[in-house]
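Listing S7. Sequence submitted for prediction.
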Amino acid sequence: MEITITDEGPGIDRKIRDKIFEPFYSTKPVGEGSGLGLSVVHGIVKSHKGTIKYRSNKPKGTIFTVDFPKN
């Protein structure tokens, strides 16, 4: 099963692409985000033997694709 999520935000800057799934990493100011969102999603997807990939269309948003294997 494949799920695609698209947003229209500013995209993901190349400088931080290797960090987006790290726990507590956030681009928001201190106190405005825990930096756990993508880390938690990544963990859940992996625990179900799935994969999560993304493609940034900076400056026109990001596309996340989540794939889960068949049982």
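Caption to Listing S7: primary sequence and predicted structure tokens for the chain studied. The mean pLDDT is 91. DSSP finds one helix and three strands in the chain.
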